[in-house]
């Protein structure tokens, strides 16, 4: 910076002002300093600024699985808010590995980011507490930890399940099946609760659970075959899959065997995965609004950074049913 | 660090050694320092280390569109290599906006990352030169700039087009169509060159171009309708789409109108997009090997950081045809 000041013929303080608060300087001064910067190839050092107490403008986001479009939506929603407020988002990806989450959060800690957004798969209490112990603020997205002392942004997954079951009953289904994995994944467990609540409030509607080995296409193929193997009288007439990919594969297996969707059986997903757009029979689903989740998380985090005494909040986003062909009566 | 040294009863230099080169210290010393670190909640400051000349272990990756699975594959390939070599990957997303690429690269510059991986959409010469002017090394992925003075990792898109056209001809197609956008996108232009070269070398095979407004599902719906509107004698019997999503939509439109794929017409994509898995008729495509691209880019970048005199290289990955139902004769 000394070189820049000499080259521009101004004081060191003026260079600092131009680089950090150009709006407060005379345009002519800004031009002179900028020209000197260009001539010298000077790049301000944000690491040095952080050491002399200047606030960092980096927000770190760690996601559990960048291969899942929900997390890309979260990143984009967060980035839109952060960019408008002069912050830089950097993204790290756990690649479906809990240990990497810890490594990435430690990295954010060690590089003194202004704050952290975390979209985990499992209970993040230990990781968030470790960062908080070092004075680093975290907002958790898409995971509801018991006793959280930090801010959380959630989709109301229980309500998503309730919407799904109510929709199928409204479209005439009486024998519902809920397709999920045996493993207790929080969004799946909560959606199942909502499905159960809807069914409990309706007369003459039954519900059975169908467990699959995974929530990918293979799991859906398994589920489709299991449905086909049931005697016709026992076969569900409405299927809710906790994941769209699984639902889409079920539609393919049923259609391939001559069971028509939606005429013979209604099928829907629950997580609005863009990778499961549905092909021949687009799939009804429940929108997760990942972009809203990311944006809300970023807003809350910046509010807390501006006012560290602010108590943590819990922001819940309402899901929304998106009806497509897989549950719509065909136009006659 | 002074506090840690006092707490552990060792010198400042010992603390530094334990934190940075634990393998060179006595296990007992490492344990004492680590215990002190835990008691004090000390987090090493990577920004401070960079100021005293310690090499950064951060690699910045900016991608043009994180919503496209190719870029997620690139990130994962790079991360696997970097993690093994003790580097941290941070990802930024241009969100299909060239201006943001510049901002993100400047950010990497200002935070003194060790090196940059860049997966751009357009010619990155200006951005790469600016970074090089500040001594920062960039490896460019998936874009071939004329006169590049930096290392580049590419898929051979010309060969991808050649493979596609040769495959359709082998499967019996004689009237080929190439579906793309009017805009001159480098991968599309190169694939078209390869298609043309294959057709030029074959007897009795014709080729026409079909331009669509975009390379998403909507563009494919347009293309499907355009194909249907042709008199049957003029209709192509083999279609190569520069993008899989577009190809998948064409299959749906044709099937919906009673034109059978692959029986009446062969359809294939060219970019191996996981979002286009194909539904009823899985789509033949050409694998882009994004993970290999990311891994090769990371390896080259680390080699150049270790040996700054190393001349830039050009690493070309061979694409690979993946045959699926949309071009396979049905089992009879």
Automatic annotation (TrEMBL), chains A, B:
SUPFAM superfamilies: lambda repressor-like DNA-binding domains, Periplasmic binding protein-like I. CDD domains: HTH_LacI, PBP1_LacI_sugar_binding-like. GO terms for molecular function: DNA-binding transcription factor activity; transcription cis-regulatory region binding. SMART domains: HTH_LACI. The keyword Transcription regulation applies. Residues 1-53 form the HTH lacI-type domain. It holds the Pfam family LacI. This is HTH lacI-type domain-containing protein.
């Amino acid at each position: 910076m000394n070189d820049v000041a000499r080259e521009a013929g101004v004081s060191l303080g003026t260079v600092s002002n131009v680089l950090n608060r150009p709006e407060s300087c005379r345009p002519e001064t800004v031009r002179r300093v900028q020209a000197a910067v260009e001539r010298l190839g000077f790049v301000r050092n944000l690491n040095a600024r952080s050491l002399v107490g200047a606030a960092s403008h980096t927000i770190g986001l760690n996601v559990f699985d960048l291969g899942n479009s929900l997390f890309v939506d979260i990143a984009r929603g967060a980035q839109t808010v952060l960019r408008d407020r002069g912050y830089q988002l950097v993204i790290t990806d756990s690649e479906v590995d809990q240990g990497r989450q810890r490594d990435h959060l430690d990295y954010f800690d060690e590089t003194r980011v202004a704050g952290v957004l975390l979209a985990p798969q499992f209970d993040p209490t230990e990781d968030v507490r470790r960062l908080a112990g070092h004075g680093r603020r975290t907002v958790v997205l898409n995971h509801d930890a018991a006793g959280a002392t930090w801010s959380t942004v959630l989709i109301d997954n229980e309500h998503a399940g309730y919407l799904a079951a109510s929709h199928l009953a409204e479209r005439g289904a009486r024998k519902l099946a809920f397709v999920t994995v045996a493993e207790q994944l929080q969004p799946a467990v909560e959606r199942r609760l909502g499905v159960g609540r809807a069914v409990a409030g309706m007369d003459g509607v039954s519900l059975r659970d169908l467990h699959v080995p995974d929530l990918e296409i293979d799991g859906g193929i398994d589920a489709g075959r299991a449905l086909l193997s049931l005697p016709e009288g026992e076969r569900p007439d409405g299927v809710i899959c906790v994941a769209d990919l699984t639902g889409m594969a079920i539609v393919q297996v049923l259609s391939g065997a001559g069971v028509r969707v939606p005429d013979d059986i209604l099928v829907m997903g629950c997580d609005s995965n863009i990778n499961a757009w549905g092909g021949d029979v687009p799939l009804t689903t429940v929108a997760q609004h990942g972009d809203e989740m990311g944006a809300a998380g970023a807003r809350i985090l910046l509010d807390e950074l501006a006012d560290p005494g602010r108590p943590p909040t819990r922001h819940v986003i309402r899901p929304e049913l998106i009806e497509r062909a897989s549950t719509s009566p065909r136009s006659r």
